[in-house]
From TrEMBL, chain A:
Gene3D superfamilies cross-referenced by the UniProt entry: 3.30.70.20
PANTHER family per UniProt: PYRUVATE SYNTHASE SUBUNIT PORD (PTHR43724)
Residue span(s) of domain 4Fe-4S ferredoxin-type: 33-63, 74-103
Keywords from the UniProt entry: 4Fe-4S, Electron transport, Iron, Iron-sulfur, Metal-binding, Pyruvate, Repeat, Transport
Species per Swiss-Prot/TrEMBL record: Vulcanisaeta souniana JCM 11219
Matches recorded under Pfam families: Fer4_21
NCBIfam families per record: PorD_KorD (TIGR02179)
Taxonomy, superkingdom: Archaea
PROSITE patterns: 4FE4S_FER_1 (PS00198), 4FE4S_FER_2 (PS51379)
A GO molecular-function descriptor: metal ion binding
Protein's UniProt name: Pyruvate ferredoxin/flavodoxin oxidoreductase subunit delta
UniProtKB/TrEMBL annotation, chain B:
Quaternary context: Heterodimer composed of an alpha and a beta subunit. Heterotetramer of one alpha, one beta, one delta and one gamma chain.
Keywords: Oxidoreductase
InterPro entries membership: PFOR_II, Pyruvate:ferred/Flavod_OxRd, Pyrv_Fd/Flavodoxin_OxRdtase_N, THDP-binding, Transketo_C/PFOR_II
Any matching Pfam family: PFOR_II
EC nos: 1.2.7.11
Biological processes per GO annotation: response to oxidative stress
Protein name: 2-oxoacid oxidoreductase (ferredoxin)
Pyruvate:ferredoxin oxidoreductase core domain ranges (all copies): 274-378
Reactions accelerated catalytically: a 2-oxocarboxylate + 2 oxidized [2Fe-2S]-[ferredoxin] + CoA = an acyl-CoA + 2 reduced [2Fe-2S]-[ferredoxin] + CO2 + H(+)
Residue stretches spanning the membrane: none
GO molecular function list: 2-oxobutyrate synthase activity; pyruvate synthase activity
UniProt domain Pyruvate flavodoxin/ferredoxin oxidoreductase pyrimidine binding: residue ranges: 29-251
């Protein structure tokens, strides 16, 4: 187990001397429900990507072909390390392609 | 002021002897230490400090940025920002202005920023009063700042120089407030000996050693701390304040050596064999109290005065050892702690200091000079006589005595 830091070990005044370390603060554990994207229903409108406050929607240059034969260059995926499960993406999605699924089942 | 053994150095360091108000003395001290950023908003009775500083900056006498702000909240926020980059900063305020700064007071101490502020004390509204007492300073008491209370214009000048050294010390890194009587000191002229710049700069070298904002080396100051870390960071700051007492004493000693002065964190007047001791702070009260002690001695009462020069951190050991052998102690407060068992804020500090050392002795809480109600040395002389009466009868008042209150207490 990691040694617990004490008040003596903290940088003075709670200063964060290492830039960009919030990346290591994984907020995914806060989640009670996870968003799941239905890639076939998704129309690549980017609205979820815009509204996500974390931001935990990843815009990937990954081609995808739907069952109906429509081809996309982009794929949107969720960064589950940082998604807090707020549900804004699911609420905003105009085609209801995002479902909130309980994190723990049974 | 100058002690005999150090007079030779005093002659060397003193550039000129001029007449200055305590406010001007504060401005001259800031000029001599070479600050980088000044931000302040005018408020009575502080205004003349920053007017003088604005004049210095406008005339090119100080190479500093003067930030005209729209409020005290902004003034302290601006110096917080500047201090975070490692700049040497100054601001000043009083009363409602200090209250308006209140939330930023905690930010300055929580972020451990070496800010120096002059704060002539003033009564708080309502009713509106521009006159002097120490209510504003008492309200800032728990904000984690080092608080010094000076009693002469010379001491204001010297204390601000010392304040930079204390604030920037690696073991402290806390904001320092130098307070003194509003109007009675801030607006009255006294002789002040100004020092040659090179001696002051030698005493306040720029060797600030703390993380600072720098675009070439990104970092974050003022982050959110979740419940699992706020407590520790806060403790770090209060521990630094507690420990700062040694640094403050050390700084006083070094200042005395360098400038031929005789400062200590408490000032003792005729205390060695005193039966009756008045504990006071600030200029007017200590001056008149000393005069009263002298008169009481002439009439056979062994009277003495203990003046608090350092208010936070509270000089517990020094206060207790100074009053240990006295019969009766009265703490004269120029501020109120309404609703407390006793209404004198410093009285409560003194009692808790005595309790800490296991000493139980009669201590009387006295309030006087609220909103600059005139405190005559007669009042203090009569207080000594009262202390003598109490000691003879063995009956001590169990509530705060409000001297000079028209109609008496309820």
């Amino acid at each position: 187990m990691m040694k617990q830091l004490t008040w003596k070990d903290l940088p003075i005044g709670g200063t964060v001397v290492e830039p960009g370390n919030a990346r290591r603060n994984l907020t995914g554990s806060w989640r009670t429900e996870r968003p799941v994207i239905d890639q076939d229903a998704c129309i690549r409108c980017r609205i979820c990507w815009m509204y996500c406050p974390e931001p935990a929607i990843l815009e990937l240059k990954k081609p995808y072909a739907t069952k109906a034969g429509k081809r996309y260059d982009l794929t949107y995926e969720i960064d589950y390390d940082h998604c807090k499960g707020c549900g804004i993406c699911a609420h905003e999605c105009p085609v209801k392609a995002i479902k909130m699924v309980p994190e723990v089942t049974g | 002021m100058a002690v005999a053994k150090a007079l030779s150095t005093r002659e060397e360091v003193v550039k000129e002897r001029v007449g200055l108000t305590s406010n001007y003395a504060a401005a001259y001290a800031v000029k001599t230490v070479d600050v980088d950023v000044i931000a302040a908003y005018p408020i009575t009775p502080q205004t003349t400090i920053i007017e003088k500083l604005a004049e210095f900056v406008a005339n090119g006498e100080i190479d500093a940025e003067y930030i005209p702000v729209e409020s005290e909240h902004s003034a302290l926020s601006a110096v917080v920002g500047a201090a975070a980059t490692g700049a040497r900063v100054f601001t000043a305020t009083s009363a409602q202005g200090l209250e308006f700064m209140h939330e930023v007071l905690y930010i300055a101490s929580g972020l451990r920023l070496p800010i120096v502020m002059a704060a002539p004390g003033r009564a708080l509204s309502a009713p509106i009063s521009i006159h002097g007492d120490y209510q504003d300073i008492m309200s800032a008491r728990d904000s984690g700042w080092v608080i010094m209370i000076a009693s002469s214009a010379q001491e204001v000048y010297d204390s601000i120089i010392m304040a930079y050294r204390i604030a920037e010390d690696n073991r402290v890194l806390l904001p320092v407030m130098v307070s003194y009587d509003g109007f009675l000191m801030s607006h009255t002229t006294e002789p002040v000996e100004l020092y040659h710049e090179e001696y002051v700069r030698k005493f306040t070298p720029r060797n600030l050693n703390r993380p600072r904002l720098d675009p070439r080396k990104p970092m974050t100051i003022g982050v959110i701390a979740s419940p699992d870390w706020y407590y520790e960071i806060k403790y770090q700051a209060i521990n630094a304040l507690k420990e700062s007492k040694n640094v403050i004493k050390e700084t006083h000693n070094e200042f005395n050596k360098a400038f031929g002065t005789n400062y200590d964190i408490v000032e003792k007047y005729m205390l060695d064999d005193a039966d009756y001791v008045l504990i006071t702070y600030g200029g007017a009260s200590s001056g008149n109290a000393k005069e009263a002690a002298r008169r009481a001695r002439e009439r056979g009462l062994r009277a003495g005065v203990l003046r608090l020069r350092l208010f936070r951190p509270f000089p517990t050991d020094e206060v207790v050892s100074a009053i240990k052998y006295s019969k009766v102690v009265a703490v004269v407060d120029r501020a109120l702690s309404p609703g407390n068992t006793y209404e004198g804020p410093v009285f409560n500090d003194v009692v808790s200091a005595l309790y800490n050392k296991g000493i139980n002795k009669p201590v009387i809480s006295v309030v006087h000079g609220i909103s600059q109600r005139t405190m005559l040395s007669d009042d203090f002389y009569n207080l000594y006589k009262k202390l003598d009466e109490y000691a003879k009868t063995g009956e001590y008042p169990r509530k705060t005595i409000f001297i000079g209150l028209r109609g008496g207490e309820a």
